[in-house]
Amino acid sequence: MRLGIDASNLRAGGGVTHLVELLRAADPMAHDFQHVVIWASQATLARLEDRFWLSKRTDPLLESHYLRRALWQRNQLGKLAQTEGCDLLLVPGGSFATDFRPVVTMSRNLLPFEWRELLRYGWSIFSLKLLLLRWSQSRSFQQADGTIFLTRYAQDAVLNVTGALSGQTAIIPHGIDQRFFQPPRQPRPLAESSTAQPLRLVYVSIIDTYKHQWWVAEAVAQLRAEGLPVVLDLIGPAYPPALRRLNRTLQRVDPTGDFIRYWGAVPYHELHARYAAADIGVFASSCENMPNILLEGMASGLPIACSNRGPMPEMLGDAGVYFDPERPDEIAAALRRLMADPELRLSGANAAYARAQTYSWERCAGETFTLMRKIARNDRGSF
């Protein structure tokens, strides 16, 4: 059999990372796929390793804006897949407009499916984009022969909007880049910390409305006011309106930048070193599908203070100390508890590290190709 992959809507971030790691770990021929053809932008194709079973295709329209890419998907993709002799099309970007069948797609973005989170953006171009995604992805999931979800929470959230899907569904988690795995270290007691050698918190994520970095900053300022030696590193790119709100908070609680620093975006290959330099990981998002950032913190041997919303408890289990991400007093309490108890930090880090080891790209690739083989064979009437 031959597999086609439409990666026309994967431009950056977690979607491209998933594609790169999926194909790196894949053994298509073990699942009866002799060849894989992928359509994507030149930048996305450049990140994919050359494999003897992989053919890379592009088109000038795939370098253009979303509407032109959608028209290419609608008018050309099906014909191209037929010409290549594809038995199944994987569309990891979520939405598709092709008549080609069978199709397997993926749910990657929960913002369009959770009203409370969507409404944070008010009436804006971005909120209208999210509403369009809600419609297009719901339609795609309802028409797909198979839909992959990353967590049970994400599956439930989408099905609450779409209703039961006619195609097959599967929960297939992502893996973790091996560079992040660092065994937990012996925690430094609070009594051995000082202003000169404080306990270091790290929160890696885009600065955005649902990530709540300003509430984390408020919590850390509260701990500093109590005399606790703690500093916070915020790392990630930024959604401009959210960055303005964060900057207003920082100007109020730490105007001289003594204990909170926003580093901006850090190259992916440097992130593991930032985790290694920290004592405690923080994750305060209220809307996620399956945050790789949380997995990376778990793999890095850190104790985690974590949001109690979304799929986070499903991923972290009893390894985390949880809080309401919109309650700075709860965030401060969770951090205070971890700082004061090095044994809790060590046991939490060990438990998180053990859970992280259950996530692998080899497992992700194997389960993804198993699902696709099943659907392709059923469509051909063979088993």
Would you kindly provide a brief summary of this structure?
By secondary structure, the chain is of the alpha/beta class. It has helices at 13-25, 42-46, 66-83, 115-118, 125-143, 152-162, 213-225, 240-253, 271-276, 292-299, 312-316, 328-340, 342-356, 361-380, and strands at residues 2-6, 35-39, 54-57, 88-91, 103-106, 146-149, 168-171, 199-204, 230-235, 260-262, 280-283, 304-307, 320-323.
Describe this structure in words.
The protein is 43% helix and 15% strand. It is an alpha/beta fold. The chain has 2 domains: 2-175 and 360-380, 3-Layer(aba) Sandwich (Rossmann fold), CATH 3.40.50; 178-356, Rossmann fold (3-Layer(aba) Sandwich), CATH 3.40.50.2000. Helix 1 packs across helix 14 (361-380), helix 7 (213-225) runs parallel beside helix 8 (240-253) and helix 7 (213-225) packs across helix 12. The longest helix is centred in the last third of the chain and has 20 residues, at 361-380. The model has no long low-confidence stretch (mean pLDDT 93).
